[in-house]
Automatic annotation (TrEMBL):
Residues 269-288 are annotated as: Disordered. The chain crosses the membrane at residues 44-66, 78-94, 134-160. PANTHER family: ALKYLGLYCEROL MONOOXYGENASE, STEROL DESATURASE-RELATED PROTEIN. Keywords: Lipid metabolism, Membrane, Oxidoreductase, Transmembrane, Transmembrane helix. It comes from the Bacteria. GO terms for molecular function: glyceryl-ether monooxygenase activity; iron ion binding. Pfam families: FA_hydroxylase (PF04116). Residues 81-213 form the Fatty acid hydroxylase domain. Residues 271-288 have a biased composition (Low complexity). This is C-5 sterol desaturase. It comes from Embleya scabrispora.
Length: 288
């Protein structure tokens, strides 16, 4: 069951409450809301729901197929629920990390990072493309977890992440900060500061980042957005600008190695400069 659609009224109410908190208790150190930015985030969220009617159906059909392939079957018990929620979160961590480290996947995920503001509307700024959930969450079905449990747990994972998109909540009690993803941890994830890039991928739990050395605590003020911000509120450009950039880079590449690198390496990957063919000593002579 996709719980995120049913949560839309709660999302709307919490957005209104957060907006009112900025209106009546502003903080100069926080970005708050901007009309155009918020409108773009909400448009991307509505577009994601519409696109999800296609991509979501494909994902569910693929997951159902994987579930039918495996002879493994786990029972519907309370401990299965615990395992499936933790398991989905573990695979989500790797999906999220791949979304930052593989440019083709980043082309979809970059949408979520394209806002220079950080508020609850940013949580709704979702991509319109991508079927990577099939690959990364699919192993849970092959392990024999009940289909409905996996789908519901994935929705729970996404629902949890809504409330952490806020500047209005500071650091929480230390044990909570150590185990769970919190607004403080996720602010770091949305930062374009060099020390914050590609950190804190966890969904519900931050322990995966601690285990796999991608954790960074919040320290210096966070600069939200991309290292090269796109400077547009046009939803179509927000949704597809990185795909267009990949296409340009692939067309300009002269070798297949570079073409594959432009698609499958990290977003900031650059091919090594070509070795100089100048005769030995020519550089020194030119410098003289």
């Amino acid at each position: 069951m996709d719980l995120t659609v049913f949560a839309i009224p709660a999302f709307t109410l919490l957005l209104a409450v957060e907006w009112a908190s900025y209106r009546f208790a502003p903080d100069d150190d926080e970005r708050g809301y901007a009309v155009k930015d918020t409108a773009t985030s909400l448009t991307m969220g509505l577009g994601s729901i519409a696109a999800g009617l296609g991509w979501g159906l494909l994902t569910v059909l693929a997951w159902d197929g994987l579930h039918e392939l495996t002879p493994l079957r786990l029972p519907h018990t309370w401990w299965t629920w615990v395992l499936v929620i933790v398991g989905v979160d573990f695979f989500y961590y790797w999906e999220h990390r791949a979304g930052h480290e593989v440019r083709l996947l980043w082309a979809s995920h970059v949408v979520h990072h394209s806002s220079r503001h950080y508020n609850l509307s940013t949580a709704l700024r979702q991509p319109w493309t991508g079927v990577h959930h099939i690959v990364f969450i699919g192993p849970m079905l092959l392990l024999g977890f009940p289909f409905a449990m996996v789908v519901t747990s994935f929705s729970i994972n996404l629902l949890y992440q809504f409330w952490i998109h806020t500047e209005r909540i500071g650091r929480l009690w230390k044990p909570i900060e150590y185990v769970f993803n919190t607004p403080s941890h996720h602010r770091v994830h949305h930062g374009s500061n060099p020390r914050y890039l590609d950190r804190n991928y966890g969904g519900i739990l931050i322990v995966w980042d601690r285990l796999f050395r991608s954790f960074e605590p919040e320290g210096e003020p966070v600069n939200y957005g991309l290292t090269k911000n796109i400077g547009t509120y046009n939803p179509l450009r927000v949704a597809f600008h990185e795909y267009a950039a990949i296409a340009r880079d692939v067309r300009a590449a002269r070798t297949w190695r570079v073409r594959f690198g432009r698609v499958l390496r990290g977003p900031g990957w650059q091919p090594a400069p070509a070795a100089s063919t100048a005769p030995a000593g020519a550089t020194a002579e030119a410098a003289a």
